[in-house]
Amino acid sequence: MNGNIKITKIWGIPVYINYSWFLVFFLTTWSLARGYFPNEYPVLSSTVYLIMGAITSLLFFASVLAHEFGHAFLALRDRIPVKSITLFIFGGVAQISQEPRSPGSEFRIAIAGPLTSLALAGFFGGLYLLDQSVPFLAAPSRYLMRINLILALFNLIPGFPLDGGRVFRALVWKLTGSLQKATHLASMAGQLVAFGFIGFGIYMVISGQFFNGLWLVFIGWFLQNAASSAYLQVNIQQALAGLKVSQVMNRDLSTVDYLTPVSQLVEEKVVGLNQQIFFVERNGEIVGNISIQDILKLNRSKWRFTTVQQIMRPNQNTTNVDAETDLMTALQTMERAQLNQISVFESGNPIGILSRDQVIKYARMRAELGL
Description:
Elements: E1 4-10, E2 13-18, H1 19-40, H2 46-77, E3 82-88, E4 91-96, H3 103-131, H4 135-155, H5 163-176, H6 179-206, H7 210-240, E5 255-257, H8 262-273, E6 277-282, E7 285-291, H9 292-296, H10 308-311, E8 313-314, E9 320-322, H11 327-337, E10 341-346, E11 349-355, H12 356-369
Parallel strand pairs: 2-3, 5-6, 9-10
Antiparallel strand pairs: 1-2, 3-4, 6-7, 7-8, 10-11
Helix pairs in contact: 1-2, 2-3, 2-4, 3-4, 3-5, 5-6, 6-7
């Protein structure tokens, strides 16, 4: 993942930290150490404030991670794969590989995050009651109680893709029986919320609260983009529902001889044809394929002295889909393998290529024709 650092794996789910997280971690630590803690507990030293700020920031982001794992736990329980969880400048996001299958599943997955944050707010609140006489323990407890409560309430705002927006979508989906209609209404609500953030942020900037106002504008901009993208994604899914790979795939097999130097393949086919997967042919038989990812793993200085056969993937080791596979299932396979193109097989033999670009063009054509 570009811009992300993998830190661990929990329940089989990779956990990443985006580089933007470090900026927020520094700002949060600095704000706590120089502002919040000295104002609330003015009896401690600067060093203690800084240590408390760093520890509290880490616990805050652990709380955000717990919030996302609340979503992930319910998704996994409903047999919905979770691709990854990433902490970034706006908090965290659990990347779920497919839409929930029912309104009930959507509701459970969406509400799990805020409930987790509310539980954490209660935990830290109880901790504060026990340690309020000890400033260097009470200060983090009180802050974490407040911030988890704010996190829960903020996410319950009924604007998609916030958790509250997903709860709203689940309710509309249940009432109308249409995921597309529910997503449309939830996305509209999300964009209204986003524009509200942007407008209030601009007002705060004009009023002299530059940093807070700018932050609200960024949050609004992020929510607006996410809401419109989610609606577009569901529209594409609806347009492609029921379609098979064979209806969209490219049946032109672009082949390369197994003894071709990698440098020649790059010059003549990769650059010229703008294709990412090529079938490898030996004595008239297709024995495997080679992709751009395979080529990039090889040092460029070795391209001239390495044949396609040496770095190709044999048929039995390739990621591929059957021609009669549902198109959405094929896209999910490509997503998991992080591929833009994938080989298509029929009766054990390669017959073509499916690419993301083909799918997008096909979906747009159907939309333009009203199909």
